[in-house]
Here is the input.
Amino acid sequence: MRPFLLPLLLLAAPALAWEEPARGTATRTNIMDAIRPHIEWALGAPVEFVVWDLRRDGDVAFASLMAQRPGGGVIDVYATPAPRRGEIDPEVGDGATVQALLQKSGDTWVATHHAIGATDMWWAWEEFCPIWHTVIPEVCGG
Here is the structure.
């Protein structure tokens, strides 16, 4: 590659607009606390999360997580309230995995959309892109 092309390629590459809130920060805690009640309703309390991917840009966020019991206990999805209520089917789901799209309203983070045990990339729906494109650029075209 010619040396003068590299700077042009770097300028053409889209910059990531999102950041991952660091462990122990109020932002990270507030985002997890926004998701927790939804997941505890479905899987029973208490729940903590292993963070696989957490992205925030301004007042929007995307989270990909694994729900577990405090101290690392595995959640038996079959034994949780959600299947008994017909909300999830553990036979076809991906366990206690969680994905969520969040928005900040005033000082409060809100889990606007979420799924437990999803086996597809439901957040790739183009209708989400006008709001969350900066935190899911790989599915919103940059």
Observations:
- Strands lie at 48-57, 60-68, 97-105, 108-116.
- The chain has one domain: 17-132.
- The longest helix spans residues 26-43.
